[in-house]
Amino acid sequence: MAISMHESVDLGRPGETPPPGAAKRRSPWLGQHMGTALIAAAGGFALGHWAGNAIAGNYENVAGSGQNNVATVLALSFGVLGWLIGSGALNYPLAKLVGKEPAPEIEEVGWGRYFRFTLDHKVVGMQYIIAVLLFLFTGGLLAMAIRTELLSPTTHYFGPGTYIAVVSEHGTVMMMMATSVITGPIAGWLIPLMIGSRRMAFPRVEAFSFWMFTAGYLVILTALPFGGFPTGWTGYAPLQTQAAGGMDSYLVGFAVVGIGMITAGFNIIATIINYRAPGMTWSRLPIFIWSLLAVASLLALATPTLVTGGLFGILDRTAQTAFFVNEHGGSSFLWENLFWFFGHPEVYIMALPGFGIVGEILPVFTGKPLFGYRVGAAGMLGVALLSFFVWQHHLFQSGINPDMRPLFMLTTELISIPTGFIYLTGMGTLWKAKIRFEVPMLFALALYFNFLIGGITGVFLSDVPVNVTVHGSFFVLAHFHYTIMGGLIFAFFGGLYYWLPKMTGKTLNKTLSLVHFWMMFIFFNLTFFPLFIVGLLGQPRRVFEYAQRLQGLNDFSSISAYLLGASFLVFTANFAWSLWIDPKPAPANPWGSRGLEWQTPTPVPFNNFERIPVILADPYHYGEENPLPVADLGVPVGAGVGSGGSGGSGPSGISGTTLIEGGPGDV
Amino acid sequence: MSEVSRTPQLMTTPEEAAYELRAAEGAIWTGSRLLVGIFTFVFASLAFAYFYLRSSNNSGLWRPHGVTAPTTIGASVFAIVLASAALNLYGTWRMRKGASVDWEVSAWTAVGGLLLALGLQIWEVTRLPFYPGSSGYASTFIGWAVLNSTLLLGCAYWLETLLARAIRLRRAVAEDGGPSRSSAPPARLFRANLEGCTTFLGFGALVNLIFFLVFYVVV
Questions:
Q1: What is the CATH number of the domain that holds A412?
Q2: What average pLDDT does chain A have?
Q3: Is some CB atom of chain B closer than 8 A to the CB atom of A315?
Q4: DSSP readout, A374-405?
Q5: Is there a smaller number of Cβ atoms within 10 Å at the N or the C end of chain A?
C-alpha cells in the first residue's frame, strides 16, 4: 500500500507547553457561561411577562381571569432567548450579520469549560451526560411521588389535581430526556471518533442543541409553579386548550426541546454522511452509527410536526385561534394526529440507539463478529421508515373510521419484522458465545430480556381487540416502561459503563457497578411486571384511586420502585467516587475492543486524531486469527485507499489550516 | 480555580486540509437539503391541518360566508417572494460566470424584497376580515402567517449574512479572482453556502406558491 507522505505544517505538538502568546489565563467566571445564561434568562422572563401584560392585560378574556397566557408564553420565550444570549449561543449568528469569520476554536481545560458554550464535541457530550442525568433524576423523583400516592387507594398524599400534574410532569420530563439521552451525550461524544473525524460537521449547531435542551428543562420545570398541566405527556386537546398556565410551559418546553432535537439530528446526519474518514465505507460503519443515522432522520423529519403542532397550541391559547376547538371549526383530533405523527417515530427515536449501543457491546464481550450486520443495519432503517406509517394506532379508541383500523394494525405489526431483524442480530451474536460478563455486557443482556417483554406486549397492543380492551390501563404503562426504560435506559447505562473509561480516563468501581446493575435489573422488573397484572385487572392510568383488591400489587410495585430509585443513588455514588474521590486511571482500551474510538489515546486529544485515519476494515473481526487492523492511524489521507467519506486527497496548496478553524460552513 | 486556554496543537498536511474542506462543503450541501426536508415537514403539518379541518368542517365553520384573507396583499407577498428567489437565482448564475457584483446587486434587492414581503405578511394579519378563532380557515391562515414570516425572516437572514461575508471576501481574496473564482477555502465554502441558500430560497418560493393557491385561489 503506497501512501504518500507530505510535509506537515507544524502548528505545535500535543502535550507541549503552548508557545508564548498562544496560551492565556482566563478566569472561568469572565465571559459568558451558565451563570450569565441564568441571569439573562431571568431577565428575559421578567421582560416577557411585563410585555405580555402590557399587550394582553386588557383583553376581555384575560381581564379578571387570573390567567394571561400571552404573558406566560412571552415570559417563557424571552426567557429562552435570554438563556441563549447569556450562554453565548447567539454570538456567532449575530456576528455573521456583519460578515465576521468564526473565531478559531480554543482548547480549554479546567472545569469552567463544562459551563460554557463550547465547540468541542467531547465537552458538549459531557455537558449532555450531566444534563440528561439531571432530567432522569428529576423525572425519577416525580415517579417516587407517584408511587407514594399509589401506596393506598384511600389515603391520599396529593389531591387529584396535584397528582395528575405530577404524573404529567413526570411523563413529559422523562420523554424529553429519553429523546436525547443517547443522541445528545453518547452520540455527540462518539460519532467523530467512531467515523474517524476530528469534529462534528456543525459544532455550533451541536452546542446550540445542548443549550436548547437545557432551556427546555428549565421551561418544563416552570409548569409546576404555574399550576401544572392535566394532560399527561401527550397534551391532548381539548383539555390542552382549557388547562391552566402550566400547559404553556408544556407547549413552549416541548417546542424548545423539539428544536434542539431537530438541530441535533441535522448535525448527526451531516456529520455521518460527510465526515467519514477515507475507507470508512457504508459497510464498515459501526452499527451504532447506523442506528444514529436512522434516529437522526426521525429527529429531523418527525420532530417538525411536534414543533408545528405546539405552535398551533400556543396560538390557540394566545392569539385565540381555534385549531383544536371543535366549536369554532377546529378539531381536537388534529392535535392528536400531529402529536402522534411525531410521537410514534419518537418511540423508535428512543429504541434504536439502544440497540445500536448493545450492537457495539455484544461483539466485544462475546469475542465474535456481529451476526447479520447488514440485516441489522437494514432493520434499523426499516424501522425508521415504517415508523411514519403507524401513528393512527394511538387513535384506535378515539373514534377514527373503523375501516382504517386494520390498515394501521397491519403497519404496526409489520414493524415487528425489521425489529425482529435487529433482535436476531443480537441473538445470533450471542449464539454459542463465550461471554465475558462485564458490567456493560450485563446491561446489554438485560436490554434483550426487558425488551422481549416490552416488545411482545407491544405486538398484543397493536391488535385492535386487545388495544381497545386494555387502552388507558396500567398494562399500556407497563409495556412502554419495559421498552423505554427496560430498553433505552439500560442501554444508556450499558453505554456509559462501556465508554466512560474512554470519556473520563477513569475506571469505575466494579463492585458498585455490579450492585447498581443487579439492583436496577431486579427492581425494575419487580416494579413494572406487576403493573401488567394490575392493568389487566382494570386499574386505569393517571387516576389516583383504584380498587382496594389491587393494593397489594401496588404496594409491592411501590416498594420495588423505591429500591429501583436507590439503585440510581448507587450509580451516582459510584460516579462521584470513581471520578473525583478515588480516581483510578483507565487503560486506553480496557475491554479489548476493536472500535476505532478505542484506538485513540486516553484522554482523547483535542483534535481526536493526530492524522486523519485510513479505515481498513470494519470493527467486528473478533475471533479471527489474523484480523486486519481497523485503521491506519499514522498516515495522511489520500494515496490509494478507497475513500468512503466525501473527502479524499484533493488539490494541494491549502496548508496551515487548523481543522477546527471555521469558515462560512462552520455554523 | 484557574485554567489554561490554548490553541489547537495540530500538524495538518495539505491533503488533510483539502479533505476537511471537501467534507465541509459536503456538509453545507447536505445541511441545506436537510433544511428543505425539515421545513417540508413543518409546512406539511400546516397543509395537513388545513385539509383536515376543511374536510371535518366542524360546526359548519370551516370557512363561513366564503371569506378569505385580503387577496391583494397575499398576492403581493407571493409575487415579491417569487421575484426575490428568481433574482437571487439569476444573480447566482451570474456569479458562476464570474460577475460577483451582479450577484451582490441582485441579492441585496432580494433581501429587500424578502423584508418587504415579511412586512406585508405581518401587515396583512392586521387587515383580516375575520377573527383568528372564527373558523378553521381563519386559524390555519394565522398559522400560515406565523410560519411564513419565520421562513421569510430566515431566508433574509441567510442571504444577508452571505452578502456581508462576500464584502469581506472581496478584499481577502481579491488577488485570487474574488469570491466567485478564488480557490481559497473561505471562498469555496462561501460558494457552497450560497448554493445552499439559493436552493432553500427556491423552496421558500415553492411553499409560497402552494399556500397562495391554497389560501386564495382554490380555497
A1: 1.20.210.10
A2: 89
A3: yes
A4: HHHHHHHHHHHHHGGG-GGGGGTTTT--GGGH
A5: N
Asked if B15 reaches chain A (Cβ–Cβ under 8 Å), the answer is yes
Return all residues near A215 (Cβ < 8 A) that are at least 6 apart.
Answer: A41, A79, A80, A83, A84, A256, A260
Rounded mean pLDDT for each run of 10 residues along chain A, 667 residues in total: 35 38 56 94 97 88 79 97 97 94 79 91 96 96 97 93 96 93 94 96 96 96 94 94 94 96 97 97 97 96 97 96 95 95 90 96 96 96 93 85 88 91 95 96 98 92 90 95 96 97 95 98 98 96 93 98 98 96 93 95 90 94 89 61 37 30 35
pLDDT tens for A232-247 read: 999 999 999 999 899 9
Q: How many residues does chain A have?
A: 667
List the end-to-end C-alpha distance of chain A, in Å, as a whole number.
37
Contact B5 A26 (CB under 8 A): yes
Give residue for cell 441563549.
A84
Between chains, do B23 and A201 touch, taking CB under 8 Å as contact?
yes
> Is A619 contained in some domain?
no
The answer for residues whose C-beta is within 8 angstroms of residue A294's C-beta and 6 or more apart is: A348, A352, A380, A381, A383, A384
In this complex, the residue of B26, B138, B167 whose CB is nearest that of residue A273 is B26
Q: At A66, list the grid cell.
A: 387570573
CA R_g for chain A? 25
A11-45 pLDDT, tens digit each: 333 333 444 444 455 566 678 999 999 999 999 99
Q: Which helix (H) or strand (E) holds A178?
A: helix A160-180
Residue A303 domain flag:
yes
From the list B7, B9, B13, B12, the residue with the least C-alpha distance to A14 is: B9
Fold of the CATH domain B22-60+74-217 = Four Helix Bundle (Hemerythrin (Met), subunit A) (1.20.120)
* Counted domains in chain A: 1
B16 → closest Cβ in A273, A323, A637: A637
Say yes or no: B150 contacts chain A, CB-CB below 8 A.
Answer: no
DSSP string, A5-70: ----EE---TTSPPPTTT-EE--TTSSS-HHHHHHHHHHHHHHHHHHHHHHHTT-TTTTTTT--HH
HSE on the CB side for A138, CA within 13 Å? 23
Q: Which of A450, A432, A439 is nearest to A371 (CA)?
A: A432
List helix spans (H) across A181-245. 185-195, 203-221, 239-242
Contact yes or no for A660/B8 (Cβ under 8 A): yes
pLDDT reported for residue A28: 61
Residue A44 one-letter amino acid = G
Point out which residues pair with B160 in neighbouring strands.
none
Q: Is there a contact between A646 and A276 (Cβ–Cβ < 8 Å)?
A: yes
Whether B3 and chain A come into contact, CB under 8 Å, resolves to yes
Exposure pattern of A95-114 as b/e (b: 16+ CB <10 Å)?
A: ebeebebbeebbbbeeebbb
The reported pLDDT for the residue numbered A112 is 86
Sign for the CA dihedral angle at A450, A453, A458, A459 comes to: positive
C-alpha cell at A190: 462518539
* Residues of B with Cβ-Cβ distance to A25 under 8 angstroms: 2-5
Q: Which structural domain, as residue segments, surrounds residue A496?
A: 118-581
Instruction: Say whether B23 and A646 touch across the interface (CB within 8 A).
Output: yes
**Nearest-CA neighbor of A395 among A473, A460, A340?**
A340
Which pLDDT score, from 0 to 100, does residue A110 have? 82
Query: B19 CB contacts (<8 Å, ≥6 apart)?
Result: A278, A612, A637, A638, A645, A647, A648, A649, A650
Structure confidence at residue A59 (pLDDT): 82
Domain ranges for chain B, please list them: 22-60+74-217
Residue A429 maps to a domain: yes
Q: Using CB atoms and an 8 Å cut-off, which of residues 99-118 of chain B contact chain A?
A: none
Which residues does chain A have within 8 Å of residue B13's beta carbon, measured at their own beta carbons? Answer: 6-9, 611, 636-637, 655
Q: What are phi and psi of A29, to 5 degrees?
A: -95, -5
